[in-house]
DNA sequence: GTACATTTCAAACAAGCGTTTGAAATGGAG
DNA sequence: CTCCATTTCAAACGCTTGTTTGAAATGTAC
């Protein structure tokens, strides 16, 4: 068996298990068993479990990140500031294109992203901001331009709120799909969830800062 | 040493470590070492690690949940439907009151809640919906009354989006505090984060369903 | 076909985990 | 002080984890 075949079998088995059970709760023995390779193959081909996790994520990041960066650059080159819904809409097509990388690619990637942020605290955050910081910066700049009423700190918090929404929803998307199907008899593919997310995120990020706060203070007295 | 003293030392040590590192990444040896009790004390007093986790959460849930339920019942008894920001504002005071249960209680509880939802998939969700389902149902009812334009499925998704925001923000609140303090020189206590959250959540939950979707479809062409 | 490098494999390693055990210590009640 | 139940303690158990090892198998070039 060629080097590439073995590595790919490992990556394919690993990403499914990682997406379903998380990184910590997936053992190398499960991975190598599903991939039908020897236990030692992971350490031989990737060096360590940590490096395998990064390789799994990199397969998707190196596809989706350049496409996002291109779209962000196009919007930044325009004369007028882009409206927030259009900035967020940039994510849709590059994410859906991951279906062409491999079947279920979009769901897998978003679940892996969710796992990466919730399982091992901070590792993925540092990895992404180190390797793809320029992409993130362009996105933040576009959001700032689209929401001139918000200062930088407010945008920082609201973007992290949004990250939480996405990451948590995707990490537990399978459970949510099941509940939604049972209780509301509705179709639940990843694309429909993404399209449900965008209005929520756009409204949350662009929310007025004062009014709900005042009515809250009133209510708590 | 009395039974209560030992149990409390274990609970105190456990909740700090759980909040900081998560349930899976905190060992009984760390807990009993910090609590200055014998390793076997956890199994003797609580039965198992799983039961300890539930006991840690119960200390806060049994305080906060009845207070929330009372407030929800008061709002449901009113003649007119409550506006969404006021419904969400109900959470503020009961959560802040946890500071009186013990110092840093609010932060600890919310971090534990975040850990519980992200660490072991589904366990906490079932535990809460089983023991406090009536509280949750009253809250959902209030949200539905405040947002008559949204059908039940849309509210289901948006409340889970909001849960993701809260849970993710709180689970990684320490890291976010550090970044915010370094980059924006701003105070970062749990109350200010809660007050930042409310407008975001209120706007997201009550977002219009159509407009952002249309402009997105236009942008992706 | 021999020689060499690459890849696979079964086996073992050291470390950590939650849990259990049985004896020692401690605490009140009679 | 004695008795008995409660609580502590050191030690070990059985299991899983990621990683390493050295020999066997495979592939490749001469």
Automatic annotation (TrEMBL), chains A, B:
Record-linked Gene3D superfamilies: Tetracycline Repressor, domain 2
Residues annotated to bind DNA: 27-46
Keywords: DNA-binding
UniProt domain HTH tetR-type: residue ranges: 4-64
Origin: domain of life: Bacteria
Coiled-coil regions listed in the entry: none
Name of the molecule in the record: TetR family transcriptional regulator
Cross-referenced Pfam families: TetR_C_30, TetR_N
């Amino acid at each position: 068996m060629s080097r590439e075949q073995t590595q790919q079998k490992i990556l394919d088995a690993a990403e499914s298990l990682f997406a379903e059970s998380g990184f910590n709760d997936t053992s190398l023995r499960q991975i190598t068993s599903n991939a039908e390779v020897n236990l030692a193959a992971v350490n031989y081909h990737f060096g360590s479990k940590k490096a395998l996790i990064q390789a799994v994520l990199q397969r998707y990041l190196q596809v989706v990140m350049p496409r996002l960066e291109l779209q962000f650059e196009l919007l930044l080159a325009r004369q007028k500031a882009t409206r927030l819904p259009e900035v967020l809409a940039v994510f849709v097509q590059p994410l859906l294109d991951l279906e062409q990388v491999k079947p279920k690619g979009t769901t897998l990637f978003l679940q892996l992203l969710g796992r990466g942020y919730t399982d091992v605290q901070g590792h993925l955050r540092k990895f992404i901001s180190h390797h793809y910081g320029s992409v993130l910066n362009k996105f933040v700049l576009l959001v700032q331009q689209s929401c001139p009423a918000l200062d930088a700190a407010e945008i920082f918090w609201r973007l992290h709120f949004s990250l939480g929404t996405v990451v948590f929803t995707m990490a537990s998307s399978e459970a949510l799909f099941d509940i939604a199907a049972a209780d509301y008899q509705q179709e639940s593919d990843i694309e429909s969830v993404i399209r449900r997310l965008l209005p929520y995120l756009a409204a949350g990020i662009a929310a007025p800062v004062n009014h709900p706060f005042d009515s809250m203070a009133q209510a708590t007295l």
